[in-house]
Amino acid sequence: MHCDATLREAMVSQLERSRVLRRPAVAAAMRSVPRHRFLPGVALEDAYADRAIALKADGSEVLSSISQPGMIALMLELLSPAPGDRVLEIGTGSGYNAALLAELIGSGGWVTTMDLDEELAARARWTLAETGYGNVRVLAGDGSLPTFGDQRYDDVVVTARSDDVAAVWWEALAEGGRLVLPLRLEGVGEYAVGFARGDDGLLRSVGVHPCAFIALRGEGAGQRGGDVFYRRPRGRGNSPACLRPVAAVKAVRRESATPALLGDADVVVARPVSLFAVTFG
Hints:
It is built from eight helices and 13 strands. With 281 residues, it is α/β, with parallel strands linked by helices.
């Protein structure tokens, strides 16, 4: 029987060899956090395998899961939290990702994490306390609603699929901060997108990775619908957008959008709160 430290080292080493995990700080965090402690009842070998694990289900529908370590590493590298940062996480789940964030920001930083499911939030709160992560605050509630007041965060990460950047996430993210979320863009696909916020208020992608996440629940889940505009509509049938690699994504709040900001995009996806300008490689 392998001990958890051996399995954890094997997990991280494999991610490093495959070049999924590149940043030493993220690797150190993943070596430090005992992933199995956040997965009670799951065998050690399964806890450290590179696959997602369901946390809660309603019949055949999975309501919450812990992402595979490889995808967690990719999203943490896109977010790139620094020591002392204030981080907001939407979708606590098991609490494992919040623990990794706490390692990355150190004792001078603070993580606020929120989950719609009160039972999952309570379990994560207990596990984080038991494993010594005192700089993590766990809230139960809808992370797409105005809950955070005037607080601004250096980093915002969403761990469920969204069709939009909710208004409260725009407002919570500080200038120069980063937002990472699994974003479904109609006609384009689903991608884990890392955005950096410029001093002009726009979000510009710093990295884009194909992904597959459970959909966001709560009020934010209802913010769907909208329009898709193609630069070359006649070519759509011959070269489906979703089969083309995405090079960059730019996001702007609808009220701030201008033709000049979006004119060089191959596809523009309009959502209730945001417009996304997508450029293919």
